[in-house]
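Sequence in, structure out. Go.
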Amino acid sequence: MSTTYTDYSAYGNATVFVSNSSELNAAIKSLAASGGGTVKVDPNGGPYDLSVSGVGSAGSPVLVQSSGSAAPLFESMTFTNSSYIAVDGVNLDTSYMTSRSQYEDDLRIDNSSHIEIVNSTFTGSAKGYLSEATSSDVQGTVGANVFDSDNITLSGNTFSNYYFVVKMVDTTEIDFTGNEITQWQGDAFHGGGIQDVLIADNYMHDPLGSTQTMTHSDFIQIRMVATDLENRNIEIANNLLDTEGGPAAQGIHMGTGGSDGTNYNISIHDNVIITGLPRGISVGGADGLDVYDNTLLWDKESWVEASAGADKNSWDPRILVSGRDVDVSGNIATWIRVNGTQTDEGGYQIQYKNAGADNYADKHFNADGTIKTASFLYGEFGAAMSSGETLSYAGSSGDGGSGSEETPTEETTAEETTTEETTEEKTTEETTEEETAEETTEEETAEETTEEETTAETEEETAPEEESEEDTIPPPGASRNEDDGNFFSKILDMILGLFGGGKDKGGDVASEPAAASITLTERVLSTGESSLDDMLPDTGTDEGDDHHGDDDEDDLDIAA
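Output:
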């Protein structure tokens, strides 16, 4: 999708042609001091390093773009105490740089305003799934790092092969729209202390991922740790988040990071989230929260590995939210929990276990993840794109899949386990999460944190003395394979029902639809014993803050 920068008339005041970094930076400084204009960059020159400080004003805006049809090659862009500068259509590539710190960034915007980066390509050096067991992977860096700034636009860009792709801290008036993000190891979008934000029409897919002892992967995570601002006035809409059979990532997760802050006026709607982790949409500490018309689907090929060599596990994504003035409606998910209580009023709850039930996912979804036109869900529940011909986000060309209805292979289950049957006799286990923040670079505010997510050792140890809203998760070593003779024991059958059928890769009968490629027949990646403890280990041993993640609101326990 081509995105238009703000077309200031002053861009036509003067034009300067440049062919190297010195000329580029000098031209920006000169035009910013003399009424504004356009810098035309020779695509045959470079590679370029754009670095400006203390330049720009509303009366002297500067546009940087190619002088030809090809995108000029950049290696870095840095804006410090600068304003009213737009960059259109460049190619920033650091893929060959393999000896950099994970906290280095390719694009840095510091204490600046009215900076627009559009229609550009960013390629980092991250290669492979991060694991303690391999040395062939390359840990990436940060694609874009924005802090203490305002009126920032990143739109129509493509980002790939980064550790953290985009980070924004203590920044206001953010337009993050129409971008495509792929091949990342940590978070696609990581924010904290952000206000007046639009995150819309983005396509985030195919994460590289990591073991959860290396870093915790998310599509979108917004928190408040070591920030000056609280999160306020944030809209997250029309995004397509799809693991596409690879490592799982949390969908949209927003919390306080253990701080006393509050997430004010949050709207999350019309997103399609396809993954294999429970936190599809989770928000804690909210004051004014609307979660509506989202579609959360389970990609059972998607998996998470607690540590090197641990079992690969997959869970169905749910909606778990808490706060004041919370409104949840029109969504499609397996679980919807508001302020610690499961509800069927927030939308339609599908399931993947019982093929004979009316709410079995295959009865409502095509293989490409769109809703079948014959389903009463079509046009009534879930994201708008779910009822389209394809799962195409607004920034795409619309050719993401056929959208044709398919009849799933008839499948049966050995025994029907429903949420209603299990909630009457459930026990509880409390999952607490602690996060600590530390500064990441000499110049950065501390926006990354370490995470500790703990679970109790045995079911006996966690049996509550009094009634609780927390739900039981399997003890370490408990088998979750339907072929296991112990599966239908009273305890495990009860527990698995609470997960809506979630289990290891060998356990269920239905596959999760995903955009354009995921079928609804089971695809087995691995079998064996697993537990939520394997997925969310007791960590906090990271050097640095990469093992960030969930907040300590009790009612967001993902065992729900």
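Check: The two ends are 39 Å apart (CA to CA). The mean pLDDT is 75.
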